[in-house]
## 1
Amino acid sequence: MDDLVAARIIESLRTGEVPLDLVGYFTVGRAGELSQAIQGLEAAEKGVSGLCFVNGPYGSGKTHFLGLLRAEALRRHFAVTHVVLSSRSCPLDRLQVVFGALMAQLNTPDCRDKPAFRSVLNAYIAMAERELITTGLASRPCRHPSCGSYLTCGYGCFAELLTKTLAADGPLTTGFHIVLTAYFNANRSNDQAGMRLCERWLLGQPLPANERRTISRLARITQRIESISNESALSSFGDAAGFLRAVGYRGLLLMLDEAEMMPSAGRAGMTQSFLNLVSLMAFCKQWRNILCVYATTPFFDNVFRMQLGSLNVDVGVKEWLTERYQANQIVLSIPERRDLVQLASSIYSIYEAAFGAHRLPGQSWLAEESQAMLNQMTARDNTRDFVTGFIGRMDRALQ
């Protein structure tokens, strides 16, 4: 292992954080839970979308588990995004903000360690141009006499081409179609301001009427589009998955972390957050190629039941939601003692790679210290406590 990578892992773990893209270096157990989540990926690859709940107490390794699932999804050529929910910066009661975070934090197999948003748009441009050429539409007269060809027509005919290209995943909503057409036209004319405007819409940012009219002009239509809203965001999730599928990815893994923040959003915010969660569960029937993973703590179980009880919907709907919630849970327990011993050994090896094997005590010290850590653990301690405590002992051994 590269010493810089090893040092990055240790520094993150020292502060209780998890380097999402590097969890494979220090993973123990979780094979059964990961296998359960992979079934959801396999279903999404076949077009059957789903939502699962990763449930575990604080410090049990939920974010670590999401990192494992992320690596597996990238290996299967999925696009992935990890959205950390927050009552201030990314609240679940405003799905348009969650959608923007999804797009901004998108990763792909060829863009694992930096945002892939623009590279995906570039792939779309290349795909669209390739389709225009290979289908002969670039020079073929279109059905509008005043336009000349599909390439110069703008929204009407270009949208038809996109519909054919994305036919396997269903049609895009009008707004998404218009913005992609406008982006393609702005790119062809090297209109950087126009491209940035389209990017802002795709990132879920609210645009004033004059900027939305500019996008319409770029698409060469008179129809004005609306910004993505809380109500339209769910359709946009489906659009994003279809778009990603069209440019070559097998699906979208959407991971919503820190879902336990819902109660901190206030009464109105928590109610809307729950309604949005219910909508997420229901929309899985309409989406294709999406696996949505919602990370929670055991406390969320009470929130779910309380909010579900307050919903003014048919009893059958409540029963369906309860069944979906219970049937799609992946429960993470605290690792067993032998797993923690193995985890300590993995972290010791990473520490050696970062700071030099000659500077650390030997294997006998490792065995004694990991056992001492286990003997001192209480019922309140979790995996995160064990990791940070063990790194603290190694830090002191170097002093």
Note: The radius of gyration is 24 Å.
## 2
Amino acid sequence: MKKLIFKKFYLDHAFFFLYVAFSVTLIVWVIQAVNFLDIVSEDGHSFRIYFFYSLLNLPKILSRVLPFIFFISLFYIIVKYENHNELIVFWTIGIKKIKFINEVVKLSLFYIFVQLVFTSYIVPTSQDKARSFIRSSQLEFFPSLFKEKKFIDTVDGLTIFIGKKNKDGSFKNIFLKDQISETESQIIFSKNGYIVNNQNNKNYLELSNGKIINNNGDKSTVLSFNKTSFNLSNYSTKTTTFPKVQEISTKILLSCVVSLTNINIIKIDNKIFNKYFACNAKNSNGMKQEIFKRLVLPFYLPLLSLIASIMVINSKDSYNYRRFQFFLFFIGTSIIIFSEVSVRYTSMSNFLVLFFSCMPIIFFITFYLFLLNKLKFLK
């Protein structure tokens, strides 16, 4: 009987958790997806790249909102059980309140595992995969980059100015500056032009009636042309293509931090680090923060479950029940905010890393001892 009612409690929490997680994640994802439209409108990537890049941000969103959703769903289910007199069933069949609280804390261990899998493996992998789409893609929406009477330098090494953009997609009074190297550049003026896409899916700018100025150091040559083609497929966007710390695997981050900390014990092998990632003291602060977010923050979940389960020590018939609800909800959200804020301070020193890493345990023991004392007093 006891197993059955706990099973029902777990299922009710799981269904509500999944419902809220799906809803909140979807809302945040839609908002972010709108912001990611710059990938197409400003950077010239295709809608296929935009779709996959946006989709691969879902795990990151879910992992960020999971602690709050876990606390909200657990808090809601316990309050719902109390309001519907379902908690009385637990006490009637002989389940003590401390037993109920311990079971709720055990439930949080499963969510710790889920969160650790997300933060340490799924999220970095999906973020790196999303960046790889940008890194390996070509600019397929050049027309979206060309705007009237505005210098565009989104494309790396190329500056574009269009005097007028016609409705048929052609351009008038075109200025191009191709920075070939530090000392060599090419400037093109053209009265007319339009973009074509050949059979090899390469973009060319067909220009007519213009001049080409080649600059090489102090030397310049000027050539006039009636028609010429400018290959746009050789250029890439300035969109950041190298991985951020959030996209580096947990194994590499830990290896790097350990090697920097114990420089005389472990020899640094640069081969284990991503070719886009520099393992050095300059990046150590960001790596510490990222490791803290991935491996320490999930351990706030048992504390949040404990705070939510404290609701059982007070019944709905109590005079201050509603105030007690708000107080516990405030405490829980404050803990979540504290855990997020503490991340930025972990880069200051190793002592602060250790201090804030111990905070979930310290908070948990403090609240648990308070709870034991409160239950003893109620008896």
Note: DSSP finds twelve helices and five strands in the chain.
## 3
Amino acid sequence: MAEVDKDLLICRCEEVAQGEIEAAIEEGASSLNEIKRRTRAGMGLCQGKTCRRLVERILAEKTGQKPGDIQPSTHRPPVRPVELQALATPGEE
């Protein structure tokens, strides 16, 4: 098996390297959500659109699971500020 670069950035938004993800798995993280909580991988601006599959592949390789058997992580839509006026019902004060 080829040697892996532990400094390879997997999550560019949160600057999480492959070594950090592997360390989280070695410390007991067994799901994408647990890796996300320990490393913040997938919590950046793209919400995991860029790194989710890479993290999933690392988890599958390290735990012997099939990628299709890994539960997806929770997703939250990007947050944008909204003026309170936009939420108010017209005519109500």
Note: The CA atoms of residues 5 and 18 lie 7 Å apart.
